[in-house]
Amino acid sequence: MKKLLYILLFVPLALFGQENYSLNFDYIDDYVLVEGNPTLDIDTISNVITISTFFKANEIALSQLAGRMEETGPDGYRINLRNNGDIWAQNGTYSAGETAIAHNGYSVGEWIYVTAIFKNHEYIKLYINGALEDSVSTNRSFSAFDSNLTIGRSSLNWNVIQYNYELFSGYMDRLEQWNIELSVNEIQSYMTCPPIGDEEGLVGC
At a CB cut-off of 8 Å and minimum separation 6, what does 27 contact? Predict the structure, then answer.
């Protein structure tokens, strides 16, 4: 059954942080939609977003874990799995942008903790299981203010039928978004001990 959720605030996604309550995506029609909300935008003071999640893929396939990105137009961000085992953190649009890459970053049936940091006009950083895998420069800034946060597939406005809409097949647990840049020590700490919900800079978990 399609998991299509229209949620006005990010906080209700707390179900991701509960053990044994990870979401199962079937690669057919399962995804979560969080309607665009200013809470999800990059903070104008910190100019950065940090996104983390645990996932376990059922197959090596082109699929999106989470993102606010369109084919063209304003620049957004997303975390994307590739069909060669790579993990991408992208800033821009589906057509153009900069990408931090974790080569051979995931395999079938393995829980992976991925963290992506998107800082306006500076860089994209990609961590896998608490270790920095790649960092690339960017001159882009987040401007996809009207885009929804789509979890488990590509944007609904980008109907890439040939790639099965980049639907995700597997499990996802503890999706967290921050409006600060987490340090490597903080990333490693939250990997083993999840936030309780009132930490500074935590937008939702």
Answer: 58, 59, 61, 63, 164, 167, 168, 169
